[in-house]
Design brief:
By secondary structure, this protein is α/β, with parallel strands linked by helices. The chain folds into 5 domains: about 1-50, no CATH class; about 140-185 and about 485-590 and about 625-680, 3-Layer(aba) Sandwich (Rossmann fold); about 200-290 and about 370-480, Dimethylsulfoxide Reductase, domain 2; about 720-755; about 760-905, Barwin-like endoglucanases. It is globular.
Length: about 900
């Protein structure tokens, strides 16, 4: 271990010296005394002498320095060394642009703080503050050690292996590996701080979220959401957002912070954190009680929603006794009938009725009655948004929807509704209130008919005839997280998924179950953790708890780029390649839309994302994560044969009994998507990006596949009732009194109601001394830790030198004056769960009641670059405990709006 650290220290070079050398042949090989087979001195002399290169070329690449991961690049390689990376102007995803992160990828590859070779632990005592005593070993030894562990666990009980994945590694093989091994315990570390997918899964049916049809949309209410130049800044989405604003589109940003989106948009509406639902309820009240049904999209409500369905006292649909179908009130016959035999025009939207002696009402009527007290004035007291502002925005939303307008595409007539409401992480991460806020936004969209039509809001995936396909009841079938998981007891997985059936990811509950398997009803004890891309110790909210959980696991292997927290807790560390070095295809074949928006260029596109790194000399003795996974599958005895790793690829051209190379897997994926006429040898820089379209024209809108009343969206969220009933029965059938660690199940069950009533988050109950709220957001330079963005010295220099807001604590200027705090003062931010400190940035860019702490700074392992410690750490202010009501029963996400107090350090 000491030798590794000495080499790191000796390999230091100033960035300015680095830049001076960057025009030379081997400029970027200066890190490490023997990197690329030459000494530092000889490489520098070669560069200074300006000797002619023997090999000089450009090769296709793909950036993976954020979760978007689809910016296609051109990589300039000279004598095996990467000297330049730029966006490919022919790529539809980024059109030649590349953000500073993408440009700084060179520094990711030649980073002296990387894991340079496989290492094993010599200190049996595990802890974040313990020196692991790593010693270098060969790849054969590393594979043998871990392979033997895998064999033993697989023979005993495959569930005892936990694989923790994440955005840090873009590996195709993770699913193949876990499926072939036989474990269900693939627990992503991402998501507990960004669990915003449920509403889209329940309504649009497409993941991971919903996006606006930005090229045709005219009015967006953007609530605490990235939209454009903040994270995926080079994506075509940023370009189209700017174009849309130039043509007159309005974006109303509702956010405690003045974000990059706000600075370029129409209006900033500052709001108290954790009250976004109240603001939207005020808007919904305005639409239903003041604007009124006759001025809303009555056609869409009748034809495209379950608003007309009759609901009984139990909260579920009233069913026809003969057909078993949900009933509506047929106004032409004056009685209730099955929805599928009634003309949608004749369905009553409003009203209370009696059916077979039972009082019932339409879903629309129940919503109308439930929100009768949620006036904009009521919402103002909670959210601080003026009632007049809420009322104006709601009216503008309806006006801009152009209710009744149509558009013709390829001879097919669509409703045209150029409005959308975008609701994401910043608003979602509040217990129950966040999920309910998104559901309110869905109702508002349905009242104007803007779901899955031109100009409106659509799910963020390839258009398909399957996405909004109706279920037995005529309503779009809940999919993904909206559908829920099967209750299998005792739990098969370590993350308590059965107790949070519609949740996103639950890595925090994984850690708690490892420490207390009895409380979480585990019938087995996990024996091995395999971290591949996940960093839950850093990204979750209780560092000490994860420290204890990882220390308890008998064996831990980690695939890591650097010595992050997961790596220092490992018994064996496999060095992952930087993405520039990975000579393989990455990502899925179905291209995602432009970041956070739908654009014509990428909607329905199938792309083959390819990196040709064959001419790049790897900086260190590292392998790609996919190669590591395949080698470990071989060492563990589940690579080949029926049910093996190779078969799980579903690539028909591969022989399941023969180990392929990573290039051969890439070749097979290429042919699977584009046909046998294509080969990797064709995909040169001259050839350019490869893509095709599966959906164009009218087919790129999901309305086309299920028009008129062929399908419906949930306005009355009956699925919530069904999830509750199913879980209640499952608990009772298994003799369980409740969900683990919930002291009062009423606090849990109140999340599962069909109409999203106002439900304040638990931080409203904090003592009065906690008189402010803390918020957090992703920043352009460091949106995630994935790929060691926070440890990239080029990015660090940009953030620390040119961005006075990055490593600071934002406090409103008026609040600073009130509390006697000055710009640059060091203050403490303290919640009921923890505290952090940092320098104040006095600003008017944040709500007066709010403390802003950007990004994920302020944490590091003992072997990581010290610059990672800089800046305040937001995560310590949050709880992950059920007793604190910090876990959302719906999404499983963590409450991220802690009540805090501030004072000088």
């Amino acid at each position: 271990m000491e030798e590794i650290m000495i080499e790191m220290k000796e390999s230091k070079i100033e960035r300015r010296d680095f830049l001076k050398l960057s025009g030379g042949v081997a400029a970027l090989a200066v890190f490490g005394n023997k990197v690329l087979g030459k000494s530092k001195a000889s490489l520098i002399e070669t560069a200074k002498a300006g000797k002619a290169a023997t090999e000089d070329g450009w090769y296709p690449g793909l950036c993976k320095y954020c979760m978007q991961g689809d910016c296609q690049t051109r990589v300039h390689v000279v004598d095996g060394v990467v000297v330049k990376v730029e966006g490919d102007p022919r790529a539809l995803q980024n059109v030649g642009t590349l953000c500073p992160r993408g440009n700084a990828a060179i520094m990711q590859m030649y980073n002296p703080w990387r894991v340079k070779a496989p290492v094993k632990r010599t200190n049996p005592k595990k802890g974040l503050n313990e020196d692991p005593g790593f010693v270098e070993i060969s790849w054969d030894e590393a594979n043998e050690i871990v392979g033997e562990k895998l064999k033993a666990i697989r023979a005993d009980d495959p569930r005892k292996l936990i694989l923790c994945s994440g955005f840090g590694v873009s590996a195709l093989g993770i699913g193949w590996f876990t499926n072939a091994f036989g474990t269900n315990n693939n627990v992503p570390s991402r998501g507990s701080a960004c669990a915003y997918h449920f509403g889209s899964a329940l309504t649009n049916g497409l993941g991971p979220d919903n996006v606006p049809d930005i090229e045709n949309c005219n009015y967006i209410i953007n609530i605490a959401r990235t939209l454009g130049g903040n994270i995926g800044v080079s994506s075509v989405g940023t370009r189209h957002m700017a174009d849309a604003l130039d043509r007159g589109m309005k974006i109303i940003n509702v956010d405690p912070r003045c974000s990059p989106e706000v600075s370029k948009s129409t209006e900033w509406v500052p709001i108290r954190p954790g009250t976004e639902q109240a603001f939207l309820l005020g808007g919904l009240y305005t639409m239903m009680h003041e604007i009124g049904l006759k001025n809303l999209d009555v056609w869409s409500i009748k034809y495209r929603t379950n608003g007309p369905y009759l609901v009984g006292p139990d909260g579920d649909y009233v069913l026809d006794k003969d057909s078993g179908m949900p009933m509506v009130w047929d106004t032409s016959r004056g009685r209730a009938r099955a929805f599928n035999v009634v003309n949608s025009d004749e369905m009553a939207v409003e009203g209370t009725y009696e059916v077979d002696g039972v009082q019932c009402a339409t879903g629309y009527q129940l919503i109308y009655d439930t929100i009768k007290d949620y006036t904009p004035e009521w919402a103002e007291e909670i959210s601080t948004v003026p009632a007049a502002t809420t009322r104006r925005i709601a009216n503008d939303f309806v006006v801009h929807a152009q209710i009744g307008a149509t558009v013709d595409i390829d001879g097919f007539t669509f409703p045209f509704r150029p409005v959308s409401i975008q609701f994401e992480r910043g608003a979602y991460q509040h217990t129950i209130e966040g999920s309910f806020g998104d559901l309110v936004s869905k109702i508002m969209c349905e009242l104007v008919g803007c779901l899955e039509v031109p100009g409106g809001q659509t799910g963020n995936s390839m258009p398909s005839e399957n996405w909004i396909k109706p279920d037995w009841d005529g309503v779009r079938a809940p999919q993904g997280e909206g559908a829920g998981v099967e209750f299998i007891y005792p739990p098969e997985t370590v993350d308590s998924k059965i107790f949070y059936p519609v949740s996103h990811t639950l890595v925090h509950l994984m850690a708690k179950a490892i420490l207390d398997p009895e409380t979480y009803h585990l019938a087995y004890i996990p024996e091995m953790m395999f971290t591949c891309g996940g960093g839950p110790i850093r990204s979750s909210f209780d560092r000490e708890l994860f420290d204890q959980a990882y220390a308890k696991i008998p064996f831990h292997a980690s695939v890591s780029l650097t010595y992050d927290e997961s790596a220092v807790m490992a018994d064996v560390v496999f060095p992952d390649q930087a993405f520039l070095e990975k000579d393989q295809t990455q990502g899925g074949s179905s291209a995602p839309p432009g970041h956070k928006v739908m654009v014509d260029a990428t909607r329905g596109q199938v792309a083959f994302f390819w990196r040709d790194a064959s001419k790049i000399r790897p900086a260190y003795n590292a392998h790609s994560a996919d190669q590591i996974l395949m080698d470990l599958a071989e060492a563990g005895g589940f690579l080949t044969g029926e049910g093996g790793f190779i078969q799980k690829t579903n690539l028909k051209t591969l022989d399941i009994n023969t180990k392929p190379t990573i290039r051969e897997i890439s070749e097979a994926r290429l042919k699977s998507s584009f046909g046998d006429d294509y080969s990797l040898d064709m995909l040169t820089d001259e050839y350019g990006p490869l893509y095709k379209y599966n959906r164009r024209g009218k087919e790129k809108y999901n309305y086309y596949w299920w028009p008129d009343d062929k399908t419906r969206f949930a306005m009355y969220f009956v699925q919530m009732i069904r999830v509750k009933k199913k879980l209640e029965k499952a608990l009772a059938d298994n003799g369980l009194t409740g969900v683990p660690n919930w002291e009062n199940m009423d606090d849990y069950w109140k999340a599962f109601v069909p109409i999203p009533v106002w439900t304040p988050c638990p931080e409203f109950d904090a003592p009065e001394e906690y008189d402010m709220w803390a918020i957090n957001w992703k920043t352009p330079m460091a949106p995630f830790y994935c790929g060691d963005t926070h440890g990239n010295v080029w990015l660090h220099e940009m953030m620390s030198t040119f961005d006075p807001y990055e490593y600071t604590i934002w406090v409103n200027k008026a609040t600073c004056e009130q509390k006697g705090i000055k710009d640059g003062d060091t203050i403490v931010v303290e919640s009921r769960y923890g505290k952090t400190q940092g320098k104040v940035k006095a600003t008017e860019l944040i709500h007066p009641e709010v403390v802003g702490i950007p990004s994920g700074h302020g944490q590091r392992s003992i072997l990581a670059n010290p610059i990672l410690e800089e800046g305040p750490c937001f995560n310590v202010l949050c709880s992950i405990h059920e007793q604190d009501l910090a876990v959302d029963p719906i999404t499983g996400g963590i409450e991220e709006g802690p009540a805090v107090k501030i004072y000088k350090a």
